[in-house]
Amino acid sequence: MNVTFPIGKLQVPDKVTAENLQEWLKEIETYTNRLREVVEPLSDVELSKTYNDGSWTVRQLVHHVADSQLNMYQRLKLALTDENPTVPAFDQDKWAIQPDTKLPVESSIKMLEGINERIVCLGASLTEEQLDRVFTHQENGELTVATKVAKLAWHEEHHLAHIKLALSK
């Protein structure tokens, strides 16, 4: 298994179908329940486990997923409301060591519940034309709304796999 990409790298079909979109939205919709099942019973010692030497702890991973979904949701909304907006990157390593990442993980799970509910609602109404809308990421270049929705789903699953990997050690 590739520890860096335990579920593989993000794969987005050239032509995103309604079925692809529904699959991604279902993953996003069910994520917080699946995440909570894994992390709710954990002790502080377990929340401090890492999946690899030097990697983030389980606690940091949970908070990172919430931070990331927040940033990606904003990018999605900007892509739908502005003409090819340029969106900033965020320094995830600096975000991961801020004081709020020492809070109980439930604070980020609650945040994710709201953000993911909004993403699913928005995603369910996307038209083909909207899926093709673009934005420009400061570091990654031009991306489509369809790619962003795929990444919203993939990224959560990617880090859930990291959490499970850390807990298996």
Describe the structure.
The model has no long low-confidence stretch (mean pLDDT 96). Helix 1 packs parallel to helix 7, helix 3 (58-81) packs parallel to helix 5 and helix 3 (58-81) runs antiparallel to helix 7 (145-167). It is built from 7 helices and 3 strands; from the N terminus they run αααβαααββα. It is mainly α. It is 60% helix and 6% strand. Strands 1-2-3 form a 3-stranded mixed beta sheet.
Topology (SSEs and partners):
Layout (H helix, E strand, L loop, with lengths): L17 H22 L4 H4 L10 H24 L4 E2 L4 H4 L9 H20 L3 H4 L2 E4 L3 E4 H23 L2
Parallel strand pairs: 1-2
Antiparallel strand pairs: 2-3
Helix pairs in contact: 1-5, 1-7, 3-5, 3-7
Low-confidence stretches are none
Strand order of the largest sheet: 1-2-3
Q: What assembly state would you assign to the polypeptide chains in this entry?
A: single chain
- What is the distance, rounded to the nearest whole angstrom, between the alpha carbons of the first and last residues? 14 Å
The residue fraction in helices comes out at: 55-70%
The overall pLDDT, averaged over residues, is 96
Helix and strand pattern: HHHEHHHEEH
* Sheet/helix structural class: mainly alpha
The number of distinct β-strands equals 3
Described by strand count, sense and barrel closure, the largest sheet is:
3 strands, mixed
Number of helices: 7
CA radius of gyration: 16 Å
